[in-house]
Specification:
By secondary structure, the protein is an alpha+beta fold. The protein is 48% helix and 15% strand. The chain has a five-stranded mixed sheet, sandwiched between helices. A two-stranded antiparallel ribbon has the order 2-3. Strand 4 and strand 5 form a beta hairpin. The longest helix is centred in the first third of the chain and has 28 residues. It starts with 19 loop residues before the first strand and ends in a 5-residue tail after the last helix. About 22% of the residues have low confidence.
């Protein structure tokens, strides 16, 4: 009696799904794509900020109160015209308040990426601020806006000039040598790491994390962390954090943290942003514990 034929092979239902790869990159094209993604993420924050301002209880209540007062004293035609003007004025104010996001997005370039350790994108009151966010396996953590701080003259300040042509020339060479030495020392003590997530055969970059390793301080600072909108909530953001922490651990870093403060709206309107920030920090703590890196 002949043996029964072998059962037909069953292909895994996930065999044809594209794979997700997350790794630190050094190629120029990947870094450019990552910067574009971060800039787009910042620009998208303008829509979220506008919605927050329009729907916040305080401005919404004041707008309704103003329209109610006008309704009491104006006829229907005049009221309709005036109400339209009031609404347009409020929308214009919202547009002006949130315009800073577009300006911030335009500053995302290689100067920001490779600049001095003190160079950040500036936010309100000159405080250092950081973008964090991205899709998380436990839910969405929206990318937060990049901001900057006042870091003074990025190329250093000049010393006093010497008397006469010879003295001025020596002073200039001395300052140039000093600046070159400072940049060389910083290059040894500071390393900028870009981690990317790619999806499928086309290797489209769908997530990016920018981290600055500070060897003297033995810590790494996450300066940007974002995921394309349609890929959020699928674990891409967490994968970026895990890879970033792994790279930091390999470089002997004992602490990984987000740059502090990343809001440009008045504090009154930052409740939602603070909740997302708390969620992002909680995820970072989980990843640090999993990989045995102390904070």
């Amino acid at each position: 009696m002949s043996p029964p034929p072998p059962p037909p092979s069953v292909q895994s239902p996930t065999a044809d799904l594209p794979t997700l790869s997350t790794y630190p990159t050094t190629t120029q094209s990947d870094r450019i794509s990552s910067l574009h993604l971060i800039a787009d993420s910042i620009a998208q924050q303008r829509q979220s900020a506008s919605f927050t301002l329009i729907t916040h209880p305080y401005p919404l209540s004041l707008s309704i109160l103003l329209l109610g007062v006008l309704y009491q004293y104006l006829d229907y035609a005049t009221f309709a015209t005036t109400a339209g003007g009031v609404v347009m004025t409020l929308l214009l104010v919202v547009r002006m308040v949130t315009a800073g996001y577009i300006s911030l997005a335009e500053t995302i370039n290689f100067t920001w990426l490779e600049g001095p350790a003190g160079l950040r994108l500036a936010g309100k009151k000159g405080h250092g601020r950081s973008p964090s966010g991205g899709g998380a396996s436990s839910g969405n953590v929206d990318p937060a806006p990049l901001t900057k701080t006042n870091s003074g003259n990025l190329h250093g300040s000049g010393g006093g000039g010497g008397g006469g042509g010879g003295g001025g020339g020596n002073g200039k060479r001395s300052r140039n040598n000093s600046n070159s030495s400072a940049r060389g020392a910083e290059g040894r003590d500071v390393e900028n790491v870009v981690v990317v997530s790619k999806w499928g055969e086309e290797e489209e970059i769908i997530g990016a994390l920018v981290m600055r390793v500070l060897r003297k301080e033995k810590k790494a600072v996450v300066r940007a962390w974002t995921v394309k909108l349609r890929y959020r909530g699928k674990g891409v953001g967490r994968a970026l954090l895990e890879e970033g922490v792994r790279v930091a651990k390999e470089k002997g870093v004992g602490n990984v943290e987000f740059e502090r403060d990343h809001a440009i709206l008045p504090d009154l309107f930052n409740g939602g942003l603070e909740r997302r920030e708390k969620k992002a920090k909680g995820m970072l703590v989980e990843v640090l514990k999993e990989q045995g890196v102390g904070r």
